[in-house]
Amino acid sequence: MNQLSGKVALVTGSTQGLGEGIAMRFAQEGAKLIVNGRSEERGKKVVSALQQLGAEAIFIRADLTDKAQAQRLVRDAAQHFGRLDILVNNAQVVPPLAPAASAVNDGLLDVALHSGLYASLWTGQAALPWFIQAGAGRIINFASVNGAYGSRYGLAYNAAKEAIRGLTRTLANEWGRHNITVNVVLPSGWSPAYQAFYGDDLQKLEGVARQTPMRRHGRAQEDIGSAVLGLASDDSRFITGQSLYIDGGQNLLGLPQLHTLEPLQQEIAP
Description:
By secondary structure, the protein is an alpha/beta fold. The chain has one domain (8-260): Rossmann fold, CATH 3.40.50. It contains 10 helices and 7 strands. Strand 1 (8-11), helix 1 (17-28) and strand 2 (32-37) form a beta-alpha-beta unit. 47% of the residues are buried.
């Protein structure tokens, strides 16, 4: 307990799903939390739940596809508590699936890159002086098993997530001298976005679980949150630039392909 006592953590996209689970897990360990998202209603609910756990928490609304808002989020978060120790870049818009040859990928890629890659860069840049002032910092970025395995019809999302891994290694290399660690996780856990990606077909969702060595879906707080907590804690002070799969071993068998067995539309001929 109290692994994060006295620490201030900003978790982007924490009004639901994995981000909410991470915030809850951090609160159990004594962190002060900044909840972020685009829904003020959901944000207030999460803040209330965190406060019931005894945590100090605030909500700051920001659309991270906009550089000014991303930078303002970090600035306002750090100024509210007087410091910033941990940045979890969980937020990501998940674009619709589309064949790689489709012209719609130009627009989809723009959305994916701005909400994921650029947002992670902008918040990291804004957090850097606060981390230097504190004498240390932790950044945990989010990639995806889908990106690592190149899941079909997910070009925009996959490309953005793999780019975040390159960003992570570069920041780790440049900022390590400031006692700042930068790592990336590739989670597979139950969330609204996860369900939307695989659809409401329970057989498909059960099939995904069967293709996971641990034979179940990840839990946002207990599984994903606890692993991210490990990277955010002082125990991981010498781990940086690494990709951590939090997927119950799913990556050992290759990505479940149940959501792509049937084409979304007629494949485009070369």
